[in-house]
Amino acid sequence: MKDKVVSIIAETTGMAKEDIKESSNLLTDLELESLDIVTLVAELEKAVGKEIPDKDIKEFQTVQDIIDYLEKNA
Amino acid sequence: MNKNYPYYSHEKIANLRELLENNNKINKDDIAFIYKDSHLETKSKTYQEFAEEVTNLSNYLYKKYNNKHIAIIAENSYSWIVLFFAIILSNNVAVIIDKDLEPERIIKLLSISDTNDIFCSSSYVDSIDLNKYNVNYLDDIEELINKGKTLKNGTKLDSDKPAVIFFTSGTTGFNKAVMLSQKNICADLYGASSIFKPFGTAFAPLPFHHAFGLITAVLKPVYYHVPVFLNSSLKRVLPEIQEAQPNTMFVVPAFIETFYKQIWNTARKTKQERKLKMGIKLSNMLMKCHIDIRKKLFASLLSQFGGKLEYIICGGAPLETKYVTWFRSIGIEILNGYGITECSPVVSVNRNEFKCDGSVGQICRDVEVKIIDGEVCVKGDIVMLGYYKDKKATDEVIIDGWFHTGDYGYLNKDGFLFITGRKKNLIILSNGENISPEVIEAKLAEDDGVCEVVVTNEGNRLVAHIYPNEDYLQNQEYFDNLITKYNKNVPKNHQLAYAVLRTTEFKKNNNRKILRDKIMEE
Questions:
Q1: Amino acid B1: pLDDT
Q2: Which of B3, B89, B305, B404 has its CA 20 to 30 A from that of B455?
């Protein structure tokens, strides 16, 4: 799941995969704006084939949070 | 090319009931709303269907509640809009609350607005203890509409009484309850619609708990009698824009910045970056000779926005002029406006054919703007009734009939309004000199190396806190030179002492506005 999430973040943001760590904070380390995060979630939905409710998005602070969420819910 | 020209003509209305009746008179079978149902299937409602559902629900609410404050705490939906109209048309007050606020804040807002009756979305409030409130679910609204079919609504509408309470979202974290009447809202619809007009479907992606997202992005299209597509989620903005094929879209600057970033990202990924840059150069050159081939040149890019997008109305926060010129180069006109919840909300907007880059447009019809000691002050029927149960705060901002916006600005000779800064951010140096930090920040932000900048007063010296763009991180020498260059062109009192570089962006509130108060704490 980690590789999948990192690939999607890299693809969506244009960042290098090696710059994306599990501990990276989406806002401060990866410098994503709130709308970037929403766009990222839309790509994650496509990749895992499952809807991520809007209300769950605010739980995503770090890359690890996304991995944990998808492992639990996907 | 731009010219001043007459107002667009619209019929004045006194209340939301007249809004429904007028649309039915124009053509009751025209589409009013396009939206996604819970299975993400596209649905639509005509003006007649919408008016009937509002009437039936207002019948039900009239029987159940009288002059009550009824909160709506839910995600955007068609039902949300029906409920909003029905609350007001049954002589109750709609209290609009952001569903994403933390539970304690929601409880606080319910308390300060004396609200005991709530309509909410089950998925959003499961973590809030609402036991002591009378809770209804938006999911059950169809049932209530049906119940209302056999009931009667005896409301005598008073357009001057409070109809809606919005909470302002200040950067200080303190919320004020803004009371607007139907007269306020109708004055805003008339005033703004007289200077801007869409020529096709409108797209509404902003949250309805903001006056801009609701009154401007949804009620105005209804007033214009054009269909409005209600975006189902921010996750689906681009696919739904492609489906809606809007002529006009209402957004805050964050959307434009994201679109811009995504366009360049895609261009890089598909190795079209150079081609896009060349295309923009060519387009700008031809436009100078009044040759417009933008629709052909950027056809595939424009198709990502549905292919018919002509206008983006932008408000809610300042937008850098570079975005306006860039989007114009590809064939989309960004019309910047200025509004404030207390003014229902629109004060000014650039016109379809009369605009000025860097300004927030022409003053809306029947609205007066006067600059008092540098501050933008507004008079007219758009000015709120006041803050709920807070006469002191109301009296501080409405003086002799003029609403003091707290924003500094000026009007140019053609009547365009320019906003230069927030009053509460004003820096007063010990020599009595007043400095608006936003003016300096705007100047510094023009530099390629600056991503974000905030100017503060530290020991009577002006300091620029800069979050550099990626290629300039930790390049202190570059920014020292930038400060020297800036200082050469400004009076002594406006000169900066030095630049402090940051490695992280500034803390922001939910609306992505920088929390200036937090800078010195970091």
A1: 41
A2: B404
